Amino acid sequence: MQILLNFIQSNLELFYIVILSVFLGIEVISRVPSVLHTPLMSGANAIHGVIIIGSIIVMGEASPDNYLILTLGFVAVIVGTLNVVGGFVVTDRMLEMFKTGKEAAAKRIKEN
Amino acid sequence: MQTNILSICYLIGSVSFIVGLKMLSNPATARKGNLVSAAGMAIAIFGTLFLYQPANSSFHNLGWIAGAMVIGTVVGAVSARKVKMTAMPEMVSIFNGMGGLCAALISIVEFGHIAQDNAPMHVLSILAGMIIGSVSFSGSMIAYGKLSGKIKDHSFSGQHIFNLVVLFVILLLSAYIIFGDSTSPLIIFGFVLALSLVYGILFVLPIGGADMPVVISLLNSFTGIATACAGFLYNNQVMLTGGILVGSAGAILTILMCKAMNRSLKNVLIGSFGGNTAAAGGPAGGQDAAFKEISLSDAAMVMKYAHKVIIVPGYGLAVAQAQHVCHELEKSLTKDGVVVKYAIHPVAGRMPGHMNVLLAEADVSYDDLLELEPANEEFASADVVLILGANDVVNPAAENDPSSPIYGMPILEVGKAKMVIINKRSMRPGYAGIENQLFFQPNSSMLFGDAKDVLQQLIGQIKEL
């Protein structure tokens, strides 16, 4: 119990961030037309790709001769980048479809 | 100095995630919102690359990091560009799994760094990140397999109990790592890792394919929480806000999706619709074989001479990639003076909004898409309703059969139209595994075949008439 209290006390601002972010997430999503559920899920999916920063830190702190950590970190950076880049690109492609008819048609003609 | 600038980068990143997510929830600003989040992400990532200073050493391995990022960028961008619109849900599932794997790997490395005197909360966030990340990874891979048809539903009796036992063992061992004084925590850690991966598989395996979007959304939320755990670990605000934001938004989105299908999350997870009801639906199908078939030329005839045709697209259309042909049919009917509209059920196409995206891809005008309620008002004035591979969303059992697993789900009341033409590949029941009484109603006719082939032939027939 004491441990927990100390932890909360020493990380108070983190707890504020967590609680406010929870409400923010709920607030932002609650009034969304169902048309946008899929792109929104995909966009949120890209945002949690911010985990890549953790993998960059792991790699940055690893000593260059610790091959086990380097390998794990290397894979972590690759999959993290996949999550970020793939996530944003897929979302963009979905949303591209929502463009007004004329724009999309003009683009398609150009591509063909 | 460097660290201060980095903090500002993280602040910009966090704000851009919030603004981006907010803009994503409005059709007019959605695309920009995605770019805003992406820009914030880029600032946060490059800030870390160039400004991050480890506590007691210098920043190493920049070359390796850059190499990994290039690989990830190329593979991610190319696969996301190349994937077909219909396979989007699978792709999202894979990317989500990658995020989970990343979180798990970070935790594995950090666990190796733990010293004896580490605070229990520090160990807790490492363990939580590893467990949630692994579950999200293996679960997403199974969800991907199911959506792409590579993995079938599997369940064995007592699976729910077994899953609970696995979960309990995971929690017990984690508590032991944190509070016990084990001499070999690494071995136990490895065991927890393996169990978490197994749990993710067992968690998703029995859930029916129709419920995969809900599961992906839930796993998406899990990965967000795993990200937040890592944010706690590194005391990194951008990871924390991003992770929690996705965690809570994902949870709400999951509930919204469940609501659109009028089912509780518990019901989806325990999976009362998969196996059991499918077996129950089987014999009933044997008794009622009294459905009518309509020929292609008759179908073309009634549609050409109708005043109003409403098309109800479903999963079958998505699978057959028939959205472009469908738009062709619409154009040729419109040329003959027929009013053509589309009725879109909120969960048509296995993913809320999936059908709108597919039709938008085929240049169908946004104004011709009717949502559930306006569509139900218009059916009575329609001469023909053409159902393309939709099943559960038009099943009257949802309205009049309290014993049906989909009872209470709002449906498209297509039966009000003068004539209903149902295109399906066979009489097999839909994803929910239940018989559809609509097919046996007097004003219904079946038109069997692959949606794309059937539509192409219909267009040909209409032109000849």
Give me the secondary-structure topology.
The complex is a heterodimer of chains A (112) and B (465).
Chain A: H1 2-10, H2 12-30, H3 37-47, H4 52-61, H5 67-96, H6 101-111
Chain B: H1 2-24, H2 30-51, H3 62-82, H4 88-113, H5 120-147, H6 159-179, H7 185-204, H8 212-234, H9 237-260, H10 265-270, H11 275-287, H12 296-304, E1 308-313, H13 315-319, H14 323-335, E2 339-343, H15 354-361, E3 369-370, H16 372-378, E4 384-388, H17 397-400, E5 419-424, E6 444-448, H18 451-464
Helix pairs in contact in B: 1-2, 1-9, 4-5, 4-8, 5-6, 5-7, 5-8, 6-7, 8-9, 12-18, 14-18
List the main descriptive attributes of the protein structure presented here:
heterodimer, A: 112 residues, mainly alpha, 80% helix, B: 465 residues, alpha/beta, 6-stranded parallel β-sheet, 6 strands, 6% strand, elongated
Any overview of this molecule?
- The complex is a heterodimer of chains A (112) and B (465).
- Chain A is mostly helical and 112 residues long.
- Chain A folds into two domains: 1-31; 33-111.
- Chain A contains six helices and no strands.
- Chain A has helices at 2-10, 12-30, 37-47, 52-61, 67-96, 101-111.
- Chain B has helices spanning 2-24, 30-51, 62-82, 88-113, 120-147, 159-179, 185-204, 212-234, 237-260, 265-270, 275-287, 296-304, 315-319, 323-335, 354-361, 372-378, 397-400, 451-464; strands spanning 308-313, 339-343, 369-370, 384-388, 419-424, 444-448.
- The longest helix of chain B has 28 residues, at 120-147.
- The model of chain B is unreliable at 272-288 (pLDDT under 50).
- In chain B, helix 4 packs parallel to helix 8, helix 6 (159-179) packs antiparallel against helix 7 (185-204) and helix 12 (296-304) crosses helix 18 (451-464).
- Chain B is an alpha/beta fold.
- At the A-B interface, helix 1, helix 2, helix 3, helix 4 and helix 5 of A face helix 1, helix 2, helix 3, helix 4 and helix 8 of B.
